[in-house]
Amino acid sequence: MADIKPAAKNPTSPKAKNSSNIVSILAPIVCIIAGYLIWRFYFGASSNFSDKLPINKTQGFWPTRENPNADSVFAKMYLGGIIVPILIGTFLTMITFAVERFFAVIKASGSGNPKNFVRKVQMHLANKNIDAAIAECDKQKGSVGNVMRAGLNRYKELINNNELSTDQKVLAIQKEVEEATALELPMLEKNLVFLSTIASIATLLGLLGTVLGMIRSFSALGEDSGGGGAAASKLSVGISEALYNTALGIGTSAFAIVFYNIFTTKIDAITYGIDESGFTLTQSFASQYK
Predict the structure, then answer these.
(1) For the purposes of burial, counting CB atoms within 10 Å of the CB of 58, is it exposed (0-12), middle (13-18) or buried (19 or more)?
(2) Looking at the 3D structure of the chain, how many domains does it have?
(3) Are 55 and 108 a contacting pair, CB within 8 Å?
(4) Does the CA dihedral 244-245-246-247 come out positive or negative?
(5) Is 280 helix (H, G, I), strand (E, B) or coil?
(6) Residue 11, in any domain of the structure
(7) Quick check: is 113 in a domain?
(8) Ramachandran area for residue 74 (φ above 0: left; ψ -120 to 50: alpha; else beta)
(9) Is residue 4 part of a domain?
(10) Residue 240's domain spans which residues?
């Protein structure tokens, strides 16, 4: 029995698209640092507080500020505590990967409707015009087109092969399609784990910040010997500031869930197109080159 020789890999195949994960590792770190800087120097700016005093430089990482302006939401968010910059960084991370996945999915979708593309290829294969089918793949420029093109190249090679049976040829085409699919799918699903993780932990981080803020508020209330309405007012303000953590956490989690579901739906559609393209190639070859 003749061996099935693997087709030579096209240097422009999806494997060439693989890039280092260094950006994926650095992005969350950069976003957390950016979140801290926004919280420290923008939310904590002296213009957001009625005392107009500059931040005490000796207090370093987490300067103490008091008397926020009544109309300054940023000042109240600053007083929400050290979890706030982490939540801001988490939100920035979510936006970063949502934008990155948006462009990646748009590129993977290619041009035109995948179903129309598959129908055109089917028509060319029915007319035994392989070159025209390959030209359609070049026009599509997406993941479905890349997989279909890899299969068509193998398809074209095997037409005049007299050493293999039809079943062996169909198996070789199927294997080529599976290899091309294995190169495409990781690129489609890359970095979605960040969105799913943020969707899970953002709310928990917000609740943690709220609990820590309420602990500080009740602790300060216990140390206040004045009591009465002033103490109750101080407690309500402290709780209000702590709840900004919950609001940030829930908002970030909600956006992450929405983006994750949108991208997974798009990826499922592309995956279906890839599966359909592989079925089209094997069925066409089996019916026309018995």
Answers:
(1) exposed
(2) 1
(3) no
(4) positive
(5) helix
(6) no
(7) yes
(8) alpha
(9) no
(10) 22-56+73-288
The two tokens of residue 173 are 């085409």
As a whole number of angstroms, the distance between CA 122 and CA 132 comes to 11
Answer whether 147's CB lies under 8 Å from 118's CB. Answer: no
Taking the C-alpha atoms of residue 271 and residue 267, their distance in angstroms, rounded to an integer, is 6
> pLDDT at position 89, please?
96
Distance of alpha carbon 62 from alpha carbon 83, whole angstroms = 11
Contact yes or no for 9/157 (Cβ under 8 A): no
pLDDT at 16: 36
The pLDDT, as a whole number, for residue 99 is 94
Q: Is the dihedral of CA 109, 114, 117, 121 positive or negative?
A: positive
Query: Residue 49 forms beta bridges with which residues?
Result: 68
Q: Check residue 45 and give its pLDDT.
A: 85
SS3 283: helix
Instruction: State residue 92's pLDDT score.
Output: 96
Q: Assess if residue 213 is contained within a domain.
A: yes
Q: How far is CA 240 from CA 73, 106, 204, 210, 217, in A?
A: 11, 42, 18, 9, 10
CA–centroid distance for 20 within its chain: 16
pLDDT, one tens digit per residue, over 131-175 is 899 999 989 889 999 999 999 998 888 888 888 888 888 899 999
Cβ atoms of 238 and 81 closer than 8 Å: no
Place of tokens 């976003």: 31
The parts of the chain modelled with pLDDT lower than 50 are: 1-20, 58
